[in-house]
Amino acid sequence: MSISQPKKPQYLKLINPPDLQMRSIAYSLDTLIPGLYIWLGALKIRIGGSLPEESYPGTIHSPIGIALVFPGYRIYSTYQGSYDP
Questions:
Q1: What gap in Å lies between CA 25 and CA 49, rounded to an integer?
Q2: What is the pTM of this model?
Q3: Which residues contact 61 (CB under 8 A, 6 or more apart)?
């Protein structure tokens, strides 16, 4: 007999929006989706980009940064680290 983990209710996704915002920025930068991304501690701004896939574990390991991704896979970013957790 196996015990499966219950699925997370949708409302729990809204409890920690900064994590979702930072994952969205990391996902968008990792996949080079055009947009403007700014993260300054608790302030996170994403113009363009995309929401991350549910299984995407990536994150940005810097509390402050700015990135600009243009169509054609051109990226200009202050962040030079890894998106791995």
A1: 7
A2: 0.73
A3: 81, 82
